[in-house]
């Protein structure tokens, strides 16, 4: 939720500054910076803001700043920080979604947009044995993430990881903290005992565990979602051998992007339940 004490409006205009991002939340009152060129053009040419106007600027790292326009240039708009709101629009958990890109890239872009709106901290495109698409357009994807963050009133833009192989990603998670829940969602393989657990139940159980045993610590979750052809049996076994819990997302056969968004929804739902239980 947006930081308490700051008045939120449905028509609130949000801008982004790469210079503020480089400060990693340390920009103080009186700090001066500039909006990026696209943001400057939108602010000055489209919305017709002028010198001394107060605007809202996110740094993409989790902080929103109230800023005064000092130089209304449509290419290099100067701003000065007047107030800072750390954690604005954030959530009380850390979520990493490792999802194979879909053959139709529009479907993957839809997932990235909606996952950002609901709440995720990173998205890693992973490439499996059955993947048909093995690359994504980083610049375009990052624009989608930025736009979705601003639209949904969030100050943090999800980190977009580099494309990497499924097994490479699994091995990179081997040394992660024991407080991180690691899930891999895949379809049941014929001939094997179905050891999968329910994704929603596992997520809620993890939230309760962290809240009860480690007060003040944010629950952290990593979820792996396979391509249209699913993970291979070897990939699934490798993930389980590295501490991933196999999970099911229900009886329906879901598209890749739908399954990935269900994982985001599971974390969001568990987070809301934890807040209600207070």
Spell the H/E element sequence: EHEHEEEEHEHEEHEEHEHEH
Strand content: 15-25%
From the alpha-carbon coordinates, what is the Rg to the nearest angstrom?
A: 20 Å
What structural class is derived from the secondary structure elements? alpha/beta
Give the averaged pLDDT, no decimals: 92
Note the overall shape: elongated
Number of helices: 8
Distance between the termini: 15 Å
Structure summary, number of beta strands? 13
Share in helix: 25-40%
**Largest sheet features:** 8 strands, parallel
Low-confidence stretches: 1-5
Keywords for this entry:
8 helices, alpha/beta, 278 residues, 5-stranded mixed sheet
Describe the model.
The protein is α/β, with parallel strands linked by helices and 278 residues long. The chain is 34% helix and 23% strand. The protein is built from eight helices and 13 strands. It has helices at residues 18-21, 37-46, 105-118, 138-151, 166-172, 199-213, 233-241, 256-277; strands at 14-16, 32-34, 54-58, 63-71, 78-86, 94-99, 122-127, 159-160, 164-165, 180-185, 197-198, 220-225, 245-248. The strands form two sheets. Strands 6, 7, 8, 9, 10, 11, 12 and 13 form an eight-stranded parallel β-sheet that branches. It is elongated and about 70 Å long.
Please give the structural blueprint.
Elements: E1 14-16, H1 18-21, E2 32-34, H2 37-46, E3 54-58, E4 63-71, E5 78-86, E6 94-99, H3 105-118, E7 122-127, H4 138-151, E8 159-160, E9 164-165, H5 166-172, E10 180-185, E11 197-198, H6 199-213, E12 220-225, H7 233-241, E13 245-248, H8 256-277
Parallel strand pairs: 1-3, 6-7, 6-12, 7-8, 7-9, 10-12, 10-13, 11-13
Antiparallel strand pairs: 2-5, 3-4, 4-5
């Amino acid at each position: 939720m947006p930081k308490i004490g700051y008045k939120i409006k449905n028509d609130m205009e949000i801008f982004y500054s790469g210079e503020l991002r480089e400060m990693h939340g340390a920009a103080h009152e009186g700090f001066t910076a500039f909006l990026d060129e696209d943001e400057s053009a939108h602010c000055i040419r489209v919305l017709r803001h002028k010198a001394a106007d107060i605007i809202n600027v996110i740094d993409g790292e989790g902080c929103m700043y109230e800023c005064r326009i000092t130089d209304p240039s449509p290419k290099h708009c100067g701003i000065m920080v007047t107030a800072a709101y750390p954690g604005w629009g954030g959530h009380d958990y850390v979520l990493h979604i490792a999802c194979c890109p879909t053959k139709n890239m529009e479907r993957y872009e839809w997932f990235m947009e909606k996952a950002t709106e609901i709440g995720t901290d990173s998205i890693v495109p992973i490439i499996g044995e059955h993947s048909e698409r093995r690359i994504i357009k980083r610049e375009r994807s990052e624009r989608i993430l930025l736009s979705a963050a601003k639209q949904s009133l969030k100050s943090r833009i999800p980190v977009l990881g580099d494309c990497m192989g499924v097994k490479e990603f699994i091995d990179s998670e081997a040394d992660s903290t024991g407080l991180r829940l690691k899930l891999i969602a895949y379809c049941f393989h014929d001939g094997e005992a179905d050891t999968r657990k329910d994704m929603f139940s596992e997520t809620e159980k993890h939230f309760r565990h962290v809240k009860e045993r480690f007060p003040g610590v944010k629950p952290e979750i990593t979820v792996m979602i396979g391509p249209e052809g699913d993970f291979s049996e070897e990939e699934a076994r490798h993930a389980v051998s590295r501490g991933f819990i196999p999970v099911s997302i229900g009886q329906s056969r879901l598209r890749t992007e739908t399954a990935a968004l269900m994982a985001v929804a599971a974390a969001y739902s568990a987070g809301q339940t934890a807040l209600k239980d207070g």
